[in-house]
Amino acid sequence: MGMTPKEAVEFAKKNGAVMVDIKFIDYPGIWQHFTIPISELDEGLFENGLGFDGSSIRGWQPIHASDMLLIPDPNTTVMDPIPAHPTVSWIANIVDPITKEPYSRDPRYIAQKAEAYLKSTGIGDIAYFGPEAEFFIFDDVRFDQTSNEAFYSLDSIEGQWNSGRDEAPNLGYKPRHKEGYFPVAPTDSLHDLRTEICLTLEKVGIRIEAHHHEVATGGQCEIDMRFDKMVEMADKLMWFKYIIKNIALKHGRTVTFMPKPLFGDNGSGMHCHQSIWKGDNNLFAGDKYGGISELGLNYIAGILKHARATCAFTNPTTNSYRRLVPGYEAPVNLAYSSRNRSAAVRIPMIATSPKAKRIEFRTPDPSCNGYLAFASLLMAGLDGVENKLDPGQPLDKNIYALSPEELKDVPSVPGSLEEAIDCLKKDHAFLKKGDVFTQDALDMWIEYKTDEEINPIKLRPTPYEFALYYDI
């Protein structure tokens, strides 16, 4: 909702808020926050901001220049439905306390710059995004890593692996592997929990289109939000994760957005529906293949051309590439098609209205930072439009069933996060247009992912290596 600072303060008082919560996102993609009493709230907060230590936030300032400011955005005003005491919430932008310039590594600012770049090109006014973020609801999770031991253990009352467990009594109704999409209760044991989550999401202004169990056993679910403008959608994705985790916790459950927590079953994706509008006109609607316009095909070409680089943002964890393998419905081949869910880019054919015409990029997963992922996809698509790129011929076949010979000319996604980061190093000029991604921001992303995730994973033996090699 659009609000002035004065209206935002009045909203807080009208709704009986006793606390004020300020939220912002770190570079990898986790919400951070701190809270002040309502007695400290005045309109000056929206201009003067609140200071904090940027050196303690992942991927941000060095300690010798750590002071930073949070400037709440009054347009993000809502009552937070999770705290026990009435709490008004704002999402903040990050600025330098001396220059008052927006911070180059603030993911929300990067997404705002991508939207501004779209307008500056004259191509369109609005980029709409609609992510379908899948997730798992588990009943128990344990994991540890020491010098002589490493393990993880996940459990769910729904897990097919518990079909023989003595549960005093075991009542069955556990979805078989790849058969969770989507039988009714009692096999779907999470219906009421998802409904409570949806009702809570609606309290913060998120419009829900559907919820259902997903393909995997062990509690895989999907809740679909209605599309929105890109930055607003990234804001909603953060509320989405926050509310789902907290409502599940209230019921003694735990949620993960890891793309591949279970071996041998489907992982969690985040298919991203996208369209560009100018005024009231959907620029993707047309008379070309799949009812798409020439501009829409150019956008698809840009997505496909830069997909291996954007995977560094859309699939940004080492675990992401456990999902991006053949055999589990994950789109590993960089092709496009209508209706075809085995292609990385799908043109949905369910709705015939020109206003509903969009493209769906199926490669991303919900471990991503939505601001960075959406911004990188928009910049890739716009590069295709600006350069009038041709996506080539569609691949209207079950790509999963094609032979290696038939696939030899079809590019694939990177095989690892390290490969994706290498692709980003080689292909990033399109991201720097309009100063959307600064070199500083790109360098830090590459450095953080390499030092904090890729290299530490390389150092550690995994349990399955003992099964393979202990007796060598």
Give a brief outline of the structure:
This protein is of the alpha+beta class and 472 residues long. Helix content is 31%, strand content 21%.
What is the H/E order?
HEEHEEEEHEEEHEEEHEEEHHEEEHHHHH
Helix content: 25-40%
**Helix-strand makeup class:** alpha+beta
- The percentage of residues in β strands lies in 15-25%
The coarse overall form would be: globular
Give a quick account of the main beta sheet: strands, pairing sense, barrel closure: 10 strands, mixed
Distance between the termini: 63 Å
Indicate the mean pLDDT. Answer: 93
Q: From the alpha carbons, calculate the radius of gyration and give it in angstroms.
A: 23 Å
Strand segment tally? 18
